[in-house]
Amino acid sequence: MKGLIILNFKNYLEVSGPKTLELAQICQGVSKKYDIEIILAPPIPTIYYLNHSVDLPMISQHVDNENPGSTTGYIIPELVKTYGAVGSLINHSEHRVDHKTIEQLINRLRSLNMISIVCASNVSEVGIFAKFYPDMIAIEPPELIGTGKAVSKEKPSVISDSVLEAKRYSKSKILCGAGIVDKSDIIEAVQLGSQGILIASGVIKSESWEKKLSELAEGF
Ligand code: G3P
């Protein structure tokens, strides 16, 4: 595959109800047309349904380090795996988790043959999390999320420094996200060493999901 896009649906109402499947199907078409891996992070209750509707990998937006059995109101890795999730975001800046729990979740996902994508807010956190050996680390400066001001243009050294910092400790893939909205943002991110991007509003709030995703795919 030429590149990797992780599309975080978050809780945007623009992708609620039947729109969830509509966007997933568009992602599937773009993924096949441009040979780009697109991983979906849809609203958690839709993972099972989408997993049986489109041929794309799904991840959970979050998982809790709670026990299976008599626990209530949590999302645990063992269950989302049965719904078809291949892994999970951990510590997204909109759902932060303490460092000990991050390490425990990475190990728990690994034991389930699930991938871990840990979100880091800065280069220092990249170094801390790389020592836990997650599959991927996504550097996302929180202040740029949803702004349309791409991390690859506003803070390019954060990406390049994150790549170097991660390499000091592990083979975790470095992704980046926050404010990415167009093809040039991706071109810059890849030139800085990012092996993929996380995106939400740049796609979800665009006028045409298919045109936007196609434009982004051309950036790899
Ligand atoms: O998980 C990716 C997300 O936090 C980026 O948000 O809206 O800036 O693409 P956005």
Outline:
Helices cover 40% and strands 17% of the residues. By secondary structure, the chain is α/β, with parallel strands linked by helices.
Describe the structure.
- This protein has one domain (4-218): TIM Barrel.
- With 220 residues, the protein is α/β, with parallel strands linked by helices.
- Strands 2-1-8-7-6-5-4-3 form an eight-stranded parallel sheet.
- Strand 5, helix 5 and strand 6 (136-139) form a beta-alpha-beta unit.
- It has helices at residues 18-34, 47-51, 77-82, 99-111, 123-130, 151-154, 156-167, 183-191, 201-204, 209-217, and strands at 4-8, 37-41, 58-60, 85-90, 115-120, 136-139, 173-177, 197-199.
- Bound molecules: SN-glycerol-3-phosphate (G3P).
- SN-glycerol-3-phosphate is lined by residues 8, 92, 140, 145-146, 177-180, 198-202.
CATH architectural group: Alpha-Beta Barrel
Q: Give the number of domains.
A: 1
Determine the number of helices (DSSP H or I, runs of at least 4 residues): 10
Rg from alpha-carbon coordinates: 16 Å
Beta-strand percentage range? 15-25%
According to CATH, the fold-level topology is TIM Barrel
Average pLDDT reading:
97
Keywords for this entry:
single chain, 220 residues, alpha/beta, TIM Barrel, eight-stranded parallel β-sheet, 8 strands, globular, binds SN-glycerol-3-phosphate
